[in-house]
């Protein structure tokens, strides 16, 4: 099997699963309980939070645990909107955000807020000049993802941070779900970023556990009320085993990052160069370093993306039609459409998303199978 769908979810590291199993079996107290078992769970929870904070180079009190990237994004947008609505009701998100951000913004648009969408250029990068022009006195939130999950375009977070440097009343949220382990932390978690979302299963952790970074001093309305966990901002009993496993996963990917990114880039470059030599191949992702080292989206002219996915699947090669969260809907990638790609071309798109567990033999086998599929589909082009 060759697994090239890592932007959808990664395979948990064996060490991560061992940490989860051990913690689930032995650290079963409620961290809020007063007895010894509760104190034991609280120590593991606190140590895991500290490790994650250290790896992200933020304060330990800035880390909050959620059920995943979707909840973190929802909380960032809705929590900010309702906390700051007395100061303004205008929100800006990029046109290529993950549905967790875009649909949260649309929901807010139905509840009294005004939403503007910052366009992107042909490379899938946010247009800074247009973004600047969208800002109003009543703007309370700007949300731009660090790495686009469909194309892999790396957004200019540093430049946006500079744009917002003299606008302290605007909360800046970054969806960093695809960035952890792929980009230097300083590239997406600048001093100007107020909120950032992460998801454990995107970096070899477990599903059902997310992180929201909230800069100290920034106010956020809770989405969940109850027992007062997470500093009374996110009530529900903490999933200690998953949190411990997430801390282990983030440490492992951070330790491997420099070497892994080099290998990922080499594999991606080989795929890019090979596919570029085929006349009817459409490559949508960029080649330069404004693209993530692990994501490459392409298509074959007049061949729908789902046809390619199933053709590769017959050879035990697994990839996806761009975002796994919306692929079953059969819709073309929203990012491609925002980039100005015609619908017919966008419908051909499939995404290869690599991981440090892949190697050149996987790439060579993928390219061998691709050549066969390309030849087999000639009659419909």
From TrEMBL:
Gene3D superfamilies, A to Z: 1.10.260.50, Aspartate Aminotransferase, domain 1, Type I PLP-dependent aspartate aminotransferase-like (Major domain)
UniProt domain Aminotransferase class V: residue ranges: 2-366
Alphabetic keyword roster: Iron, Iron-sulfur, Metal-binding, Pyridoxal phosphate
PROSITE patterns per record: AA_TRANSFER_CLASS_5
GO molecular function list: catalytic activity; iron-sulfur cluster binding; metal ion binding
InterPro entries cross-referenced by the UniProt entry: Aminotrans_V_dom, Aminotrans_V_PyrdxlP_BS, Cysteine_dSase, PyrdxlP-dep_Trfase, PyrdxlP-dep_Trfase_major, PyrdxlP-dep_Trfase_small
The protein's required cofactors: pyridoxal 5'-phosphate
Pfam families assigned to the protein according to its UniProt record, in alphabetical order: Aminotran_5
UniProt similarity note: Belongs to the class-V pyridoxal-phosphate-dependent aminotransferase family. NifS/IscS subfamily.
PANTHER family: CYSTEINE DESULFURASE ISCS 2-RELATED, CYSTEINE DESULFURYLASE FAMILY MEMBER
Protein name stated in the entry: Cysteine desulfurase
Organism for this UniProt entry: Streptococcus chenjunshii
């Amino acid at each position: 099997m060759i697994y090239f769908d890592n932007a959808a979810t990664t395979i948990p590291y064996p060490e991560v699963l061992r940490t989860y199993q051990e913690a689930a079996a032995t650290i079963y107290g409620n961290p809020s309980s007063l007895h010894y078992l509760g104190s034991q769970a609280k120590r593991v929870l606190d140590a895991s939070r500290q490790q994650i904070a250290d790896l992200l180079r933020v304060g330990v009190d800035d880390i909050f645990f959620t059920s995943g990237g979707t909840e973190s994004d929802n909380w960032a947008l809705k929590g900010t909107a309702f906390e700051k609505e007395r100061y303004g009701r205008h929100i800006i998100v990029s046109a290529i955000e993950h549905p967790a951000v875009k649909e949260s913004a649309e929901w807010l648009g139905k509840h009294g807020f005004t939403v503007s969408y910052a366009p992107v250029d042909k490379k899938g990068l946010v247009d800074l000049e247009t973004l600047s022009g969208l800002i109003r006195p009543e703007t309370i939130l700007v949300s731009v993802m660090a790495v686009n999950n469909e194309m892999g375009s790396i957004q200019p977070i540093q430049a946006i941070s500079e744009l917002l440097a003299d606008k302290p009343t605007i909360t800046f949220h970054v969806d960093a779900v695809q960035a952890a382990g792929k980009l230097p932390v300083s590239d997406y978690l600048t001093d100007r970023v107020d909120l950032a979302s992460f998801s454990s299963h995107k970096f070899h952790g477990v599903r059902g556990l997310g992180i929201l970074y909230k800069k100290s001093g920034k106010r956020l309305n809770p989405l969940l009320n109850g027992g007062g966990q997470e500093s009374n901002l996110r009530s529900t009993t903490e999933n200690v085993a998953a949190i411990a496993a997430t801390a282990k996963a983030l440490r492992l990917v951070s330790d491997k990052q420099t070497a892994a990114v080099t290998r990922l880039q080499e594999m991606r470059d080989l795929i890019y160069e090979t596919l570029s030599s085929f006349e009817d191949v459409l490559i949508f992702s960029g080649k330069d370093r404004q693209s993530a080292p692990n994501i490459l989206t392409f298509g074959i002219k007049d061949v729908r993306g789902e046809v390619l996915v199933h053709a590769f699947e017959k050879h035990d090669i697994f990839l996806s039609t761009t975002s796994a969260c919306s692929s079953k809907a059969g819709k073309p990638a929203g990012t491609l459409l925002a980039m100005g790609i015609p619908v017919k071309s966008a419908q051909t798109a499939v995404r290869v998303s690599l991981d440090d567990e892949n190697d050149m033999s996987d790439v060579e086998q993928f390219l061998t199978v691709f050549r066969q599929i390309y030849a087999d589909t000639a009659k419909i082009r």
